[in-house]
Amino acid sequence: MRYRNFLALFLLLHCPSLLTQVTPYVGVLGGISTLSADAGSQKTAQGLSLSSYAPANGGAIDVVVGAHLHNYISVQANYIWNSNDLVFNSSLSNSVFYQEARNSTQNAGIFDLLVYFRNRKSRIRPYLGTGVGVSHLTSNLRHVIASGGAPVLPPDAFSSTGPVFRSHVGIDLRIKHKLDFRYSFSELIGHNEISKRLSPPGSSALKNFDNLFGFVVRF
């Protein structure tokens, strides 16, 4: 606590211009989430086993709390939620197969650094952003579409938690003095627990692409 007080006093005395440049903001964005697909293959005594999952587009929400530190640099924390339906497919031999409908949900906390291409006085401000965080994925069985033989089915419910990397581009459009409209396209990359549950398993990372639209309020 003493260190924090000393640091705040030092900034106040020696860098008053830096403190006056800081502008906090909050925002809410919503849009469409798209997951990457994956497939697996494995040679067996009966031939070739194949598997895949096909995701459908779903909804996404991004709640942001950040601060403009400089004309061209900002930091922000994000809570990102998205939900997508999935179809698992697996063919283990001529008579052993399954197809099932599932859903998946991701909850992620991300810390971002944003670099703007125009200063804060501009009405149109495009930016690049990158960040890291943690994501929790859960998937639940909706119903089995078809099956034959005695396939090894994935668990009705499974989950995983792990680090993720986020990269995104966007633009802030000033509507009023302290209100911006924001568009963001982001990619979230992390461990793919969905592919791991296929039979045979896939090998690609899970990529989540979000098209987000919303509003940011500056204070």
A few lines on this structure:
The protein contains 3 helices and 10 strands, in the order ααβββββββββαβ. The chain has helices spanning 2-14, 16-21, 193-196; strands at residues 23-35, 38-44, 47-55, 58-68, 73-91, 97-116, 124-148, 157-176, 179-190, 206-218.
> Residue share in helices?
10-25%
Number of alpha- plus pi-helical segments:
3
CATH class: Mainly Beta
> What structural category do the secondary elements indicate?
mainly beta
Largest sheet: 8 strands, antiparallel, barrel
The first-to-last residue Cα distance is 26 Å
Query: Any idea what the CATH architecture is?
Result: Beta Barrel
Q: Which residues form runs of ≥5 with pLDDT under 50? A: 3-15
Total strand count, please?
Answer: 10
Overall domain count: 1
In spatial order, strands of the major sheet run 1-4-5-6-7-8-9-10
Strand content: over 45%
Mean pLDDT: 91
Gross morphology is elongated
Rg to the nearest angstrom?
22 Å
CATH topology description: Porin
Listing every helix as H and every strand as E from the N terminus to the C terminus, the arrangement reads: HHEEEEEEEEEHE
Describe the structure.
- The protein has one domain (23-218): Porin (Beta Barrel), CATH 2.40.160.20.
- The protein has three helices and ten strands; from the N terminus they run ααβββββββββαβ.
- Helices cover 11% and strands 68% of the residues.
- The model is unreliable at 3-15 (pLDDT under 50).
- The protein starts with a helix and ends with a strand.
- Strand 2 (38-44) and strand 3 form a beta hairpin.
- An eight-stranded antiparallel beta barrel has the order 1-4-5-6-7-8-9-10.
- The chain has 219 residues and is mainly beta.
- The longest helix has 13 residues, at 2-14.
- The protein has helices at residues 2-14, 16-21, 193-196; strands at residues 23-35, 38-44, 47-55, 58-68, 73-91, 97-116, 124-148, 157-176, 179-190, 206-218.
- The radius of gyration is 22 Å and the shape is elongated.
